[in-house]
UniProtKB/TrEMBL annotation:
InterPro entries: Fert-Immune_med_protein (IPR051899), LY6_UPA_recep-like (IPR016054), Snake_toxin-like_sf (IPR045860). It comes from Equus asinus (Donkey). This is Testis expressed 101. It comes from the Eukaryota. It is found in: Cell membrane.
């Protein structure tokens, strides 16, 4: 990882020197960022300065998955060329507050360097007032970690959460192959932090939970699922907000 501004400068210089190649070919910002943050909004510059030249028929993409449990937020972000999909901006709230919050954003666009979002200010606006509003009786082990949680303190849950979630995710694609462990309070039922939406741009998320022995085998999980779609307008961008609410039978 790490930025390599020199390489970016060289490429940009070449582009400037031969505008014909710009007209024909697509160039995209490239980068991968994987981290656990206290506040991801200003945590990093998502536009690294690295540049990737794409094959014909490609798009530029920028995609990020954010998962907050307790005070920590996992950030898995990718930029680069992609050959699949179509131009679109997608914002999905996989699991809503209170409790564990999971959102993803993906932008596929057609012009060189159009994947130029620098921070997550427009994407990440979690609830601030979660800490004081806690229930007296529900506590959950809480953590989020790349790999495995080293410790997961049992913390009081926000009101309106109903259970503890414990799951392992594997995020693959877009230059990322990373395991993630997530524990915390939620109102999501079952192993459904992603709400059944497992693609985040070029990333694919595999979600696995260790059920208590009472729960039925996995096949019974394909119960009634419904997604609620709504469109939001944000300040600078028209974002398609796909708000998923999932009910398991
Ligand atoms: C982020 O990095 C890009 C490329 O290096 C640079 O052009 C841009 O100014 C940076 N943005 C911020 C807010 O530092
Ligand atoms: C890509 O498409 C352009 C214009 O259609 C064409 O001139 C160029 O040869 C193509 N490049 C490759 C590598 O196929
Ligand atoms: C979150 O951070 C605040 C301030 O640093 C701290 O007071 C609070 O105990 C933390 N909460 C959790 C759940 O870790
Ligand atoms: C949270 O739930 C507890 C117990 O149900 C209740 O006493 C308390 O008033 C609730 N707090 C808020 C802020 O809703």
């Amino acid at each position: 990882m790490g930025t390599r501004p020199l390489q970016g400068w060289l490429l940009l210089f070449l582009l400037g020197a031969s505008p014909l190649s710009l007209a024909q070919n697509l160039y995209c910002h490239q980068g991968v960022y994987i981290s656990i943050e206290d506040d991801p909004r200003h945590a990093f510059n998502w536009t690294t300065g690295k540049v990737e030249a794409c094959d014909n028929g490609s798009f530029c993409q920028e995609s990020v998955l954010l998962i907050k449990a307790g005070n920590k937020t996992a950030v898995l972000a990718s930029k680069g060329c992609t050959t699949e999909g179509s131009p679109a901006m997608t914002f999905i709230q996989h699991s809503p507050p209170p409790g564990i919050v999971t959102v993803s954003y993906s932008n596929y666009c057609e012009e060189s360097f159009c994947n130029d979002m620098e921070d997550l200010l427009q994407i990440w606006k979690p609830e601030r007032n979660e800490v004081p509003r806690v229930t007296a009786n529900l506590h959950c082990p809480t953590c989020v970690a790349l790999g495995t949680c080293l410790n997961a303190p049992s913390l009081p849950c926000p009101n309106d959460t109903t259970r503890c979630y414990q799951g392992k995710l594997q995020i693959i694609g877009g230059g990322i192959n990373s395991p993630l462990e997530v524990k915390g309070c939620t109102s999501v039922i079952g192993c459904r932090l992603m709400a059944g939406v497992f693609t985040v741009g070029p990333m694919w998320v595999k979600e696995v939970c260790q059920y208590p022995s009472l729960i039925q085998p996995r096949k019974a999980e394909n119960g009634a699922t419904w997604l609620l779609f709504s469109v939001w307008r944000l300040e600078l961008l028209l974002l398609l907000l796909l708000q998923s609410v999932v009910h398991c039978s």
